[in-house]
Amino acid sequence: MARLADYFVLVGYDPGKRGSGDGQGQILQRFPEKDWEDNPFPQGIELFCQPSGWQLFPERNPPTFFVAVLTDINSERHYCACFTFWEAVESPQPQSHARNGEGEEEEEEEASSLVQPAQLFAPKSLVLVSRLDHAEVFRNSLGLIYTIYVDGLSVSLENVIGNLLTCTIPITGGAQRTISLGAGDRQVIQTPINDSLPVSSCSVALLFRQLGITNVLFLFCAALTEHKILFLSSSYQRLTDACRALLALMFPLKYSFTYVPILPAQLLEVLSTPTPFIIGVHSIFQSETQELLDVVIADLDGGTVNVPECVHISLLPEPLLQQTREALSMVLDPELEVADLAFPPSTISASSLKMQDKEIRAVFLRLFAQLLQGYRWCLHIIRIHPEPVIRFHKAAFLGQRGLTEDDFLTKVLEGMAFAGFVTERGAPYRPIDLFDELVAYEVKRMKAEEGNKQKILRHIKELAEKLYKNENPYPAVTMHKVQKPTEGCHLRLHQKPFPHLDEGTVQWIIDQATAKLQTAPPAVKAEKKCMVPSGPPIAAILERNGNALANSARRLEVVRNCISYVFENKMLEAKKLFPAVLRAMKGRAARHCLTQELHLHVQQNRAVLDHQQFDFVIRMMNCCLQDCTAMDEHGIAAALLPLVTAFCRKLSPGITQFAYSCVQEHVVWTNIQFWEAMFYCDVQNHIRALYLDSAEENHMEQESTEEPQEAKSALEIASEQLRLWPTMSREKQQELIQKEESTVFSQAIHYANRMSYLLLPLDTSKNRLLRSSGLGDVESVSNSFVTNSIAGSVAESYDTESGFEDAESSDVANSVVRFINRFVDKVCTESGVTNEHLKGLHVMIPDIVQMHIETLDAVHRESKRLPPIQKPKLLRPNLLLGEECVMEGLRVYLMPDGREEGAGGSVGGPPLLPAEGAVFLTTYRIIFKGTPTDPLVGEQVVIRSFPIASLTKEKKISIQAQADQFIQEGLQLRSCTFQLLKIAFDEEVASDSAEIFRKHLHKLRYPQHVRGTFAFTVGQSPKQAMQPKAKEKNPSLRTLSKNLVKNAKRTIGRQYVTRKKYTPPAWEQRGSQHFPEDNEDEISVSEELDRSTLTPSSTMRPSEKMTMTHVVERACCRDYQRLGLGTLSSSLTRSKNEPFRISTVNRMYAICRSYPGLLIVPQSIQDNTIQRISRCYRQSRFPVVCWRNSRTKAVLLRSGGLHGKGVVGLFKSQNAPTPGPSQADSTSLEQEKYLQAVINSMPHYSDAGGRNTLSGFTSAHMSSAGKWGSIRASGRMSSYALNVEIGSRLAGKDLLGTPHNGTPAEPSFLRQHRASLYIIGDKSQLKGVKPDPLQHWEVVPIEVFDVRQVKASFKKLMKACVPGCPSSDPSVAYLRSLEESEWLSQIHKILQISVLVVELLDTGSSVLVSLEDGWDITTQVVSLVQLLSDPYYRTLEGFRLLVEKEWLSFGHRFSHRGAQTLAGQSSGFAPIFLQFLDCVHQIHLQFPMEFEFSQYYLKFLSYHYISNRFRTFLLDSDYERIELGLLYEEKGERKGQQVSKSIWDYIDRLNKKAPIFFNYLYAPEDGEVLRPYSNISNLKVWDYYTEETLSEGPPYDWELAQGQPEPAEEPDRQDTAAPQSKRRIIWPCYDNRSRVEPDAISKLLEELHNLEMELGQVPERWKDTWDKVKASQRTEGRQEGNRTPSSLLMSSGLSHHRRSLGVYLQESGVGSTLNLSLDSDTSSTSTPSSGKPGGRRSTSTLYSQFQMSESENRSYEGSLYKKGAFMKPWKSRWFVLDKTKHQLRYYDSRMDTECKGVIDLAEVESITPGTPTMGAPKTVDEKAFFDLKTTKRVYNFCAQDVQLAQQWIDRIQSCLSDA
Prior knowledge:
Layout: E1 2-3, E2 7-14, E3 24-31, H1 45-49, E4 64-71, E5 77-88, H2 104-112, E6 121-130, H3 135-151, H4 157-166, E7 168-169, E8 176-179, E9 187-190, H5 203-211, H6 213-224, E10 228-233, H7 236-250, E11 258-260, E12 277-282, E13 295-299, E14 304-306, H8 320-332, H9 335-338, H10 353-371, E15 379-383, E16 389-392, H11 394-401, H12 407-414, H13 416-425, E17 429-430, H14 434-441, H15 443-449, H16 453-471, H17 503-519, E18 530-531, H18 553-567, H19 571-584, H20 588-600, E19 607-608, H21 611-626, H22 636-644, E20 647-652, E21 655-658, H23 672-699, H24 714-724, H25 730-759, H26 785-795, H27 797-804, H28 810-830, H29 835-865, E22 885-894, E23 915-922, E24 925-932, E25 942-947, E26 951-960, E27 967-975, E28 979-985, H30 991-1005, H31 1014-1017, H32 1037-1053, H33 1065-1070, H34 1079-1094, H35 1105-1113, H36 1115-1123, E29 1140-1143, E30 1159-1162, H37 1167-1174, E31 1184-1188, E32 1195-1199, H38 1204-1211, H39 1222-1240, H40 1259-1265, E33 1266-1268, H41 1284-1287, E34 1317-1322, E35 1337-1342, H42 1347-1361, H43 1370-1381, H44 1383-1402, E36 1406-1410, ...
Parallel strand pairs: 10-12, 10-13, 11-12, 19-20, 32-36, 33-37, 34-35, 34-36
Antiparallel strand pairs: 1-7, 2-3, 2-6, 4-5, 5-6, 8-9, 13-14, 15-16, 17-18, 20-21, 22-23, 22-28, 23-24, 24-25, 26-27, 27-28, 29-30, 31-32, 38-39, 38-44, 39-40, 40-41, 42-43, 43-44
Helix pairs in contact: 3-4, 4-17, 5-6, 5-7, 5-10, 8-10, 10-16, 18-19, 18-20, 20-22, 23-24, 23-25, 25-28, 25-29, 26-29, 27-29, 28-29, 32-34, 38-39, 42-43, 44-45, 44-48, 45-46, 45-48, 48-49
């Protein structure tokens, strides 16, 4: 029972108080006057009576009523019902009633004027203070008192008030009580059935009406997530209702922050409090709430909710939010559902306001039941006696619900309201209410009804009924009877003031009642306590986002299998499954499965494993933990915690390493909430065990043990214990309390140990504190020492502590100790551990940590000695013959660079990089060989290598090789074969090894002398660099070669030389190779050199004869003879009629060291003149002839650029006074003579009076013999030097009016009178040169780029094609950097100049190319011109000759430009030759049928001219090669040496074996001049720069790529033994496509080869086979008369158009056919068509693409009878035998175009004479029958007569034999 009202207070206006502004109220009377003991009088009531301030009013207002709520210090709520009315202020003094808030001055005025002011009224309040919220009863009671006073009823007010204060009513239980205050009144009070459910009457429904659904939901979420909420309204009653409603919605959570439904004006500063609140304020103060930045303001009158920008309200998680909205709209607006119906039902209407209120609350009650479902399964009970202590495992709850990321729920669970909820509702034994039932029993129902609106509404109505019943247990209420005042009574003029009440009377009534209560027996409230039901566990309620895939049983199966393999020691099996297990670990189920499986393998909490098992288990644990957050919401870390102290391995006797030392790197271990949750969970289990054991002992005798008991949960046991608690004896209670306390204490010790295991790092000396929480990480040896040594250590702990402080690892230790202390303090105080025990713990912890550190030291020491396992075995690379390892493999990771193919990335394909393996340094290459770290492609092998000689840049980098590893040092090596090795050294590689690697690399890259390069040292074993410490005893090769050269030089210096063979000793020991045999000749040549420089003589000494014979054999000589540029007879007599002669003036390389020994000069020029002329040119490279056009006899000359003086001398007018000495004069004259002699040598020179008026250079002429690069005209602008840059000075006038598209309709840019000789020179050298009309030559100044620009451009090109690091948008970045490199524009320039020169030569003018020093761009241009003009150079033999002549003999400085030795290191790599090859590649692309060699040939040369594998491209000139004895050694030595020293020999040998260098499309036209397009848009980036094959490394070392030391017989070797699937997956950048899927011709040649081998024949060379095929095709074509495209490659069948593009060789499956689309005469355009790769196709499809009328293909036709299939009659059909398509077709009749059937002759097995069968034509001779047997069936035929039959048989037979 409780008092209805505690105090009655009369509050009035206080005239005496003078504040500034508002007046104040004062308490006039209060009853009872002394406080109740159980309930002191609340302070500040006078403020709440007039919340807007006490003021006087000029007229009477009607009485008001509202309820304010005050909260006392014990957070008890007091309801103050205020009834306010107004009284006239009676006061004689004028100043007293002027307290209307005006200032002092006004009062003085009033005093002086004696006018009586208007009457004022002051408010007076009757206040009831109660702890019960019965607003209506209070309203009635106070109204009654007012009525008695106002209407002057004859009832004593004192009696009424006394009765009111002594009235007691039951609090709950649904009782109904009638009360009367003794004034003839009667009121009925109903108490709610269950006081835990809030009472809301209509307030909730009103709140929704005022604000709407969305706004209220905002407020609801804001209140739950602890935001500040402020209500505004002009009605106090509404403010109270709104606040009450919001609280009612929050049930079952209770609001525990500031709650003031009506805030008085004086207390407005409360609004700036930092804590959350729910407050109501009158709307007149709205302006003062504007500056509140973090308050959600709800305006009840305006219906708005304003959320400030800085406030983020987390809303309910979906789908709950949506479901709640829908349910609310069904309740509040039932018409919405039927609003669109044509005939809406008339009955639908919303429930009454009171019912609606309950329905809304039912919606929210359901919402909470869904939000908190299964919460009881996450409660940990850690003490039962003396009273329960309960904790909630938040992380587990969120994890099981799958809502870890959900903001709203997380905040709610962390909030105060939920903490209160756990304390109040966590108890396992208590009265239960509606919510408990709902969350325990109805969750499944709610899950089932989801989405069914009718059922949901039904459930809501049921709940609403219960809620309504709770508030109104008795529906038929007896009527209240309370007197009301008469209408308008408050306006009476002469109302006497409220009387002063007699305290005595009231007090007496109160005392009487109190006395009576004391004598009455105490009313015992029967509490119905029971065990709280737990409801279904969360797992049973399906998790919301359980995706089927993650938990698929197959994955769990894999995890189980892998673990069982590990423990059965089947390591290989486990390894295979391992990647799948790691992937499965992403799923939660798999992680749980892993922990369960591992638990099974732990016996007696210990499991000793061997190293490999241990390693697997650790990796699985780490993988499992790395996806766990610090919260460990799925309890994975919790499940692993006992395991990490169980699994261990023996490192050495007595030293064991446990798993925890390897799994510390996870944040979860540093999260104190995780440890608390774990601790509480364990404590709960132990407490449960404590009571279970005792229970079992007691019940053993009583019940038979057969029936199995269901395991009781800890909460069930606790509730049982709590029920029994009051019945136990005092001693028993004490004993239980003590047992529980010691259980908790022992767990605390256990956890202190566990935490030290996981927090102290294995290497404590590092002082590395743990990540976020400022901690170290840790482990220990055995579990047992916890029990054994703790007791001992406690005794001596004080001494150890002092000694411990100065230990070196104290920082780590201290932080760990602090962390553990914090933890222990928190959990022990919460779970009621006694103070003595707590102190003991604090003493113990430092010792535990220190002991652990000591055991760890030993473990750390031993573990460092373990060999690292799990690293893949190093794979040895294949080496070439003679290539040897300099340095054994260093273990490294090959990291991905900017090329995305290897790393998987957006291109697709597997992530081959990063790969783990080793880097090897050999005498020839740097090789990485390893396997990808990604387990999915772990069985592939990755090889990346490049020749050391091609290394261009090496820099140190630091990279993180794997996510979990530290940053490692690494190297980035870049090679000009377009390769990049980005390697990170494994931690096992010492940094000095890495240094040694770099040093050796550098030494090999830049040998002192060219003798040190691989091409020379091959076959001699190098000194191993393996023992870096040992001093090298034997002198290195390089020093040898240095001495050698020194000696040679010394010898040369002497005038007389003893001729002896000089063989360096070191090489003799190796026994593989001798110094060149013609040693003596070399020396003699050198000796002559000195003399010959002084006296140029034209006679030949006998000693030089030997050298000469060699010189004659040189390539250039062979070429000169081919071109008819002079012969060299034995007597060296010249045939005088030749315009040119071969001069031996340079045979001793005296005049020009970089020229060959024999040169072509005009017949008329003497040798001594040559010597003088040569001085005018740079590097003495005077003009010599290198090629002659066989048609126009124009010659191509090359020279270096002119020296300054030479230029002036050459071009100044003859009569001008000569500056300088006369020598210059004479030389320039001789120079002129020389050029004139060249011009005179041209046959048509004498034509028009000494001028060459060759106007034949018309477009017609051009097109007749030439071949343009493409059919489009747009591309011709720059196809020859039409750019203003080049062409502007051409012919001495500026270029005007070139047509825009660049088609030279009439080439006006060449003057009508063409010069006989054009000199193409550098613009910068020829500045100020005036053309002289008298001379026959003309200067074309052009701008060219110098070598510096080529270098810079090449660097950028390499970075573009092989970027060092990935960019955000690779394709764009690639194109941009490609453009910036300007590489293609340089190619464009070279091609442009070359095409210009080709044009000039083709029209009969000679050209002298005289650029830079005459050995870079000059060489490029001259070679390209010859290649374009002369088809011979487009053959394999011719191209070799071209390179030998123009590049090698004419002294392109290969060593210098390739930076091959130490001397060239500073100058860097300049790819002049590569640029030339790129130009050839561009031409090859445009004219694929003009070259005998393939693209592979060009790539091969590009790779090997810098690889130093061959000697061909070493050194800078013939002179240097002779000096080293390279030039002529091959003859003598070839026999003994397997290693090719010359690249040409190698290519020849390889070409005989396999057609890799051969271009099958080769079908040249005679005498064709090529004119390629040079526009950048026509140029392609060479795939040599971008492609790589990681499966085998670069494919240019043929033996290596084959995987066997001997070059394979066939380029496309495959394992044909086993039948293979036709389908192959080819990965970008991994597989060599041409090998995996060779083109059709190679395939056929290979099959032919294999068949010949099988038949035991000696296989023919592929070339012979190919030539035979071509020949037979040609003859067949001729026989047939009309040229069918059946010829495989018929040169004659091709039109004169450009035969390029769209000629594809495509491989489709095995034994496939060719698919070439060539232009036949009938069609003039070429249609690219590519065969689909796929299954085998019949031959016929090959030809079907050539559309022709059928008739062409009918080789023989006629009518035959054919027997139908089984049981079908004979029918006459028209048969056509088609030889071309190799088939027999038949039609219904001769005229029919629709073919009825086809017999493929390929399938025919035999033709035999047949016999007539049933239904055959009767008239026919039986010899006219014949049968055709195919692989599928037998066809029966019959002809008209025997002759015809015979003819058919013969025809078909011949077809078969032909095939």
